[in-house]
Amino acid sequence: MVLPPAVLANICDFLEYPEAIRVIKQQPHGFITILPYLQSAHSRLSVINPYNITRCQQLRCLSLPNSDHLNNQMLTMLPKLEQLTVRSDAQITNQIWSRLPNLQRLELLPYRARQTNCMPNGAQLAPLTKLELLWVPGQQITVRDLVRLPSLKTLILERSPLSPVILNHLPRLEFCLLNGQLIKYHSSLKNKALLHKITQLRPIEIKIYALD
Question: Residue 153's closest CA among 127, 181, 178, 132?
Fold first, then answer.
C-alpha cells in the first residue's frame, strides 16, 4: 500500500532529519511530494543540506543545535516556523527575527566564545509577540525589551547584565535562568524537561528567588 505524501511526512516528523531524508529518497518524487508537508526537522549533526530544508515550506519546528549552517535566506523560506533551535554562531543576522512573527520558541544555544551576528536586541524582538520561550545571549536585551513580549513564560539569558530584580517586572515568567543561575521555577513536566536539557549542556547554580 502506498501512503499519501502527507501521511508519510507525519511519520518523518518523528525521525531524525537525515533518517527522514533517507525515507523520502525511497519514494517516487519524494523531495517534491513529501518535503513540502514536513513540519519538524531535527538533527544533532553539524552538517545539513540547506537545499532540502528550504523545500519544507510547512515547517513549524527546526532544531539544529550543533549546526552553524543556517542563514537568513533559508529562514525566510520557512514562514510558518514556530520553534527554532540553533547555535548562537549560526550564519544568520538579527535582521531575520522580524521575518519570523510566528516564533514561539527561540533558542540560540551558546557555543564556545565565538562572536555571534544573530544576537537579538529590543528592536528585533518586538515583532515576536507569540514568543513563549527565549534562550539567547543577552548582552543587548533590557527589561524594557522583555516586558514587550506578552506571551513570554520561559527566559534563559547568557552573559546578561540583568539581575534577579527582573522578576519584579516579569510576573508571568514560569522559568527563569540568568547567567547560569536558576532564579524562578514553576514545577511542570515541560519545565522539568527543560531543566534536564540545560544541565546536560552546562552546570547551573540554583538560587531560586521565586517558586510557584
Answer: 132
pLDDT tens track for 88-100? 888 888 888 888 9
Give the residues across from 211 on adjacent strands. Answer: 185
Longest dimension (CA), the chain: 60
> How does pLDDT run across 113-145, given as a tens digit for each residue?
455 556 677 777 888 999 999 998 888 889 999
**Which three-class secondary structure string do you get for the chain?**
CCCCHHHHHHHHCCCCHHHHHHHHHCCCCHHHHCHHHCCEEECCCCCCCHHHHHCCCCCCEEEECCCCCCEHHHHHCCCCCCEEEEECCCECCHHHHHHCCCCCEEEEECCCCCCCCCCCCHHHHCCCCCCCEEEEECCCCCHHHHHCCCCCCEEEEECCCCCHHHHHCCCCCCEEEECCEEEEECCCHHHHHHHHHHHHHCCCEEEEEEEC
